[in-house]
């Protein structure tokens, strides 16, 4: 009981009233008033570990490190959720995130594949460091950051179950050729496009490569205050193209 402490209350309400806090060793030699009350205090329990905040898909852009004011370098949360859903990830999926930007898709993909691996491929050196900072921030060591201009650098990666293309740097044809050649059975490729020209190129390449494909147009408007009332502000529309080899319909 060496970790215990004693509170000795002597002659409470009497002329020799006294309250003392003592160790047990001191108490053993203490000449206490015969009228007393002894309180023993046990060792303090270790504080309970902090519970991690629950994660739900669609973290706000502000949760990630990213370059400002160039917010275009980060996939908006609503588009991110839809894009990840089209990848049909499993807990052990291998994911390529090409044109990773800030790494927001890589981070959320990693949270969905705790037993898998995510490869964030980015050509810009500044963005590579931002992705690494986000990997540390969210504690997802199974994200590997690859500083390369895709499709360069992809040859060293394991075959993917899912490929997300958020930016191609004008090399979409080469990227899709490599990605679809390496894609595992039932794998998915998801391409985000923000212009009609990019959508046309993506669909044309899917047809050229013999890929089954489908596309959705995502138009999001977010509420914002306006003179004490509620208004909406539109985000840029995004085309999400999902492609697969034909083993089955996209999930």
Please describe what this structure looks like.
This protein is an alpha/beta fold and 251 residues long. The protein has two domains: 5-41, no CATH class; 61-244, Rossmann fold (3-Layer(aba) Sandwich), CATH 3.40.50.150. 25% of the residues lie in helices and 28% in strands. The protein has helices spanning 24-28, 77-87, 104-112, 125-138, 172-182, 196-208; strands spanning 5-10, 18-23, 36-41, 94-98, 117-122, 143-147, 162-165, 188-193, 212-218, 221-226, 229-234, 238-244. Strands 6-5-4-7-8-12-9 form a seven-stranded mixed sheet, with helices on both faces. Helix 4 (125-138) links the parallel strand 5 and strand 6. The longest helix is centred in the middle third of the chain and has 14 residues, at 125-138. The model has no long low-confidence stretch (mean pLDDT 91).
Given as residue ranges, the uncertain stretches (5+ residues, pLDDT < 50) are none
Supply the CATH class of the largest domain. Alpha Beta
- What is the annotated CATH architecture of the largest domain? 3-Layer(aba) Sandwich
State the CATH topology of the largest domain. Rossmann fold
**3D shape:** elongated
User: How would you name the CATH homologous superfamily of the largest domain?
Assistant: Vaccinia Virus protein VP39
Biggest sheet character: 7 strands, mixed
Spatial order of the strands forming the largest sheet: 6-5-4-7-8-12-9
Helical residue percent band: 25-40%
Number of helices: 6
Distance between the termini: 62 Å
The tally of structural domains comes to 2
Query: Helix/strand-derived class?
Result: alpha/beta
Write down the overall mean pLDDT: 91
The proportion of residues in beta strands is 25-35%
Report the count of strand segments: 12
Gyration radius, rounded? 30 Å
What sequence of helices (H) and strands (E) makes up the elements?
EEHEHEHEHEEHEHEEEE
